[in-house]
Write a structure and sequence with these properties.
Helix content is about 90%, strand content about 0%. With about 100 residues, it is mostly helical. The chain has a domain of about 70 residues. Helix 2 packs antiparallel against helix 3. It is elongated, with a radius of gyration of 22 Å.
């Protein structure tokens, strides 16, 4: 069996499957939908972390390891969203400073 032939078959299969999937996804995706989905994801992670923390405070059988992981996921997701917002705002301000 030749490794080169396997890699060409694998890359062809990936290109065909991923390419058609990306074309389907691109037609359905808009910027506002992406922002809405991300906002909902951030909100669900913060809610999950809050619920886990509340359960731990009440004394329910909550694994502290899972609690800390959910808090860190919520924090990281929120910080990423904040940085994206800051970059978009900087870009908007830069466009507004341009002279025509």
């Amino acid at each position: 069996m030749n490794i080169e032939s396997l890699s060409s078959v694998a890359s062809e299969a990936l290109t065909t499957n991923v390419g058609s999937k990306m074309q389907e996804d691109v037609s359905d995706v808009s910027f506002s939908n992406m922002i809405t989905e991300y906002y909902n994801d951030v909100n669900s992670k913060i809610t999950e972390a809050d619920n886990n923390l509340r359960d731990y405070a009440v004394g329910d059988n909550t694994n502290i390891h899972e609690l800390l992981i959910s808090i860190q996921k919520a924090k990281s997701t929120f910080e990423l969203g904040l940085q994206v917002r800051n970059r978009l705002l900087e870009g908007y301000q830069e466009v507004m400073r341009m002279q025509m």
